[in-house]
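hiii, so i know i said id send this last week but things got crazy w the move. better late than never?? heres the sequnce for the chain we talked about at the cafe, plus the structure i predicted for it. fair warning i was half asleep when i ran it
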Amino acid sequence: MDRLLKLCPEHPYDDVVAQIVMLDWQRGRTVLVGDACGAASLLAGQGGSLAIAGAAHLGDVLGPVVSPDWISQALVDFERRWRPVVEEAQAAGRRAASSFLPANRTQRLLHRWIIQATHLPGIDRLVAHRIVGRVAK
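okay and structure toks below
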């Protein structure tokens, strides 16, 4: 064990894997988008896609607005329609955490076996479904 510890860097990099959970994304004519309103964990692997799709959706919601008086309601609609998408991505990140960060020796062994099994036909899709919750066809 001492030999292995000597091979480790003296100051290892450490970071927190976290998600942003906001009660409200909009107030009046102000709205949060992308990571500001609902950053999905890096374990979900969907942050960039969510930000781009969310911005496009916001544009779709604001596009038909013809009066400044309608902006607030459009932003309420944006949050109501986009929040479930973000919450599902955040849930995928929480599910993925246990897959990427096993808590004990048994989970580490299981994790290793699953990773090795992903090389078998069809198993990769099962593992992806378990982590993300759905798999593209």
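btw The chain is about 60% helix and 5% strand. thought thatd interest u
miss u guys!!
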